[in-house]
Specification:
The complex is a heterodimer of chains A (319) and B (314). Chain A has 319 residues and is of the alpha+beta class. Chain A folds into four domains: 81 residues, Winged helix-like DNA-binding domain superfamily/Winged helix DNA-binding domain (Arc Repressor Mutant, subunit A), CATH 1.10.10; 42 residues, no CATH class; 91 residues, SH3 type barrels, CATH 2.30.30; 73 residues. Helix content of chain A is 37%, strand content 27%. In chain A, α5 packs antiparallel against α6 and α10 crosses α11. The chains are: A alpha+beta (319), B alpha+beta (314). β5 of chain A pairs parallel with β4 of chain B, so a sheet runs across the interface.
Chain lengths: 319, 314
């Protein structure tokens, strides 16, 4: 049997199941749909597989009693409202943003589903305006090998096991997690879910997962309603400490700091004095360290220490 | 999915697509579905031997492609597309929400309407709970000005901060495209100052001004291939070898490395750059989490700048 024959048979089967108002028995389907083998056993096997294949594709094949009086024989049908995408129409502008959204996945894990979804929607949008998109290229990267198995687990509500590296102190341990969602924050992927061993919600960075991600079975916990996953990830990415910094900055240096400064005045020759509100002490400390001797932190002491710590590390001074 | 199922999925999408576009040219349809015209004709030939049980001529799907245009009829049962699968719904929803989180990146009214419709189309829980979320950064003012410049094909004046040299530069650029990446937004443009294609990160643009001068992107300007990574070193660039502690592994994810080896709980990477000032600043910001192994003068520069900076605190 060729692949073409199989497609033809499945298409005829789908049409027959959609066209019927009452469930059809296997015997009826065998007569209606060309391409089934003569032997009973071979037919049963093939029909079972066809039914599973259609369901895997998302075609909702229902099982039901074929008669209101007798429920001894089961039949099959597809309800058209369960099968079909609800009727709607998309304007040219809406189609343009949908196309952009699909393009974001180009070359990444969901590239195939994104483009097949778009083709389905195009049935409800006669006008598409490719010009509106000129010059805009969104792109999401999913390079971590853990992405695919984790996405499968999120989608199908599975539990997974993987080895995870913690940096400080460096330890690797096996984690058993029921993942709820994958979150990409500023180019880094995280998985959020229920950590079974800790009995609590946890965030894991995909790049710290070592080796394979194994699906171990069904998830048992529900994702809490209203959980703010993005906020959980933001906390994991670094609990941000905010404040106002006072700096001395060499004239001509650190233009990116001057832009955000609330107060700026010339100090002694060649130096300016700045007040700079910040939302993330660690990030600002790294920015300031990168300027080397062109900036001096006056206040607050925590920021001063953080910068000195980075500079000592870079200079090779052992703590 | 097996090839037979993939093809079935395509046929079930093709029929509604064609019904909405009577007389669509073969080439256009083949292009939309990413298949050859021969393959499309084969699909159409498969369609017209399928239909309602009985398979009398009146039951079969009608498909014609005379004169290079496609017509389809008598396919009522599969006239509407199959509902979206979870992967499909999540792919589009997460893409739309990523754009919605980027002010200035796209037409927000259209985005909101498309999101609402898609959530309705996706129906079940796929819509309500976010299973994949992409939070990207972008500067609204920069993105909005760049979009206008691209649409109207106008040049832009940028005040742009170059971190490798800690320098604010003033330049006129001819915009080519706006890249909205998960790691941030970039304008790819022909830079008249550098006389080459450059990437400008939105968060380093200090000011952006739309000029009345038309954009003039020279014919030799090429888009970079995003699959090759954002930063593509030139062969003549210098090789720099760094040891990265575990907390600095992101460097290897962020910049293209020629070599990445596991080393002492962290990584040893080799990358190429034309700008050693950039490396010095990168290593200073990483503190004890990075060390330059080669070239020696870059390592010395890091040490001497760190020591000079520390002197101010003594």
């Amino acid at each position: 049997m060729s692949s073409r024959d199989k497609t033809e048979r499945l298409l005829n089967l789908t049409i027959a199941l959609l066209a019927t108002r009452r469930p059809l028995t296997r015997a009826e389907l065998r007569r209606m749909v060309p391409g089934y083998p003569d032997s009973d056993e071979a037919f049963e096997r093939m029909f079972e597989r066809d039914k599973d294949d259609l369901r895997e594709m998302g075609v909702p094949v229902e099982t039901g009693a074929t008669s209101a009086l007798f429920d001894d024989e089961l039949g099959y049908r597809i309800r058209s409202d369960a099968y079909a995408l609800p009727e709607m129409s998309f304007t040219r502008e809406e189609m343009a943003v949908l196309t952009l959204a699909a393009q974001a996945w180009a070359g990444a894990a969901l590239a195939g589903p994104a483009s097949s979804a778009l083709l389905k929607l195009k049935a409800y949008a006669v006008e598409t305006d490719e010009q509106a998109l000129t010059g805009l290229t969104p792109r999401v990267g999913t390079h971590e090998p853990a992405f695919r198995p984790l996405w499968q687990a999120v989608r199908d509500a599975r539990c997974v096991r993987f080895d995870y590296r913690k940096p400080d102190p460096p330890v690797t341990g096996t984690r058993t997690v029921e993942p709820w969602a994958l979150v990409c924050r500023h180019g880094r992927w995280y998985v959020v879910g229920h950590d079974r061993d800790r009995g609590a919600a946890r965030v894991f960075r995909l790049s710290r997962i070592d080796g394979p991600v194994t699906i171990t079975g069904a998830a048992e916990t529900e994702r809490p309603a209203g959980a703010d996953l993005a906020a959980m990830v933001a906390r994991e990415a670094g609990p941000a400490e905010s404040g106002v910094a006072r700096l001395r900055l060499r004239v001509g240096a650190g233009a990116f700091l001057r832009r955000a400064a609330t107060l700026r005045q010339a100090e002694q020759a060649g130096w300016d004095s700045l007040e700079l509100p910040y939302g993330d002490l660690a990030a600002l400390a790294a920015d300031l360290a990168s300027l080397g001797p062109d900036v001096v932190v006056v206040d607050p002491p925590r920021l001063r220490e953080a910068v000195i710590g980075l500079l000592r590390g870079a200079a090779g001074v052992r703590p | 999915m097996s090839p037979a199922l993939q093809r079935l999925a395509r046929l079930l999408a093709l029929v509604p697509y064609l019904l909405a576009r009577p007389g669509a040219p073969l080439a256009e349809v083949a292009g939309a579905f990413g298949i050859s015209e021969d393959r499309l004709i084969d699909d159409l030939e498969l369609l017209f031997v399928c239909g309602l049980p009985g398979h009398m001529p009146d039951d079969l799907i009608e498909a014609t492609f005379d004169g290079g245009v496609v017509h389809i009829d008598n396919a009522d049962t599969i006239a509407r597309p199959l509902r979206l699968g979870t992967d499909e719904a999540v792919a589009l929803l997460s893409g739309l929400r990523m754009l919605a989180r980027l002010p200035g990146a796209a037409d927000h009214e259209a985005l909101d309407r498309a999101l609402a419709k898609l959530e309705r189309a996706a129906g079940d829980a796929a819509a309500a709970t976010e299973r994949i979320a992409v939070v990207a950064q972008g500067q609204a003012e920069v993105l909005a000005a760049a979009r206008v410049a691209l649409r109207e094909s106008r040049a832009l004046r940028l005040q742009y901060y170059v971190p490798g040299r800690d320098e604010l530069t003033d330049r006129v650029v001819d915009p080519m495209r706006l890249l909205l990446l998960d790691s941030g937004a970039y304008l790819e443009a022909w830079c008249r100052l550098a006389e080459g294609v450059r990437l400008f990160r939105a968060d380093r643009v200090h000011s952006i001004e739309l000029l009345d001068t038309p954009a003039a992107v020279p014919a030799q300007a090429r888009y970079r291939d995003l699959d090759e990574g954002l930063f593509q070193p030139a062969p003549q660039d210098r090789a720099v070898v760094l040891d990265l502690a575990d907390s600095a592994r992101w460097v290897a994810e962020h910049y293209p490395c020629e070599r990445v080896e596991q080393h002492d709980g962290g990584l040893r990477v080799t990358l190429r750059t034309a700008d050693s000032g950039w490396v010095v600043r990168l290593v200073l910001r990483l503190g004890a989490a990075a060390r330059v192994l080669a070239p020696a003068e870059v390592a010395e520069e890091v040490t001497s700048r760190a020591q000079a900076a520390l002197a101010a605190y003594q």
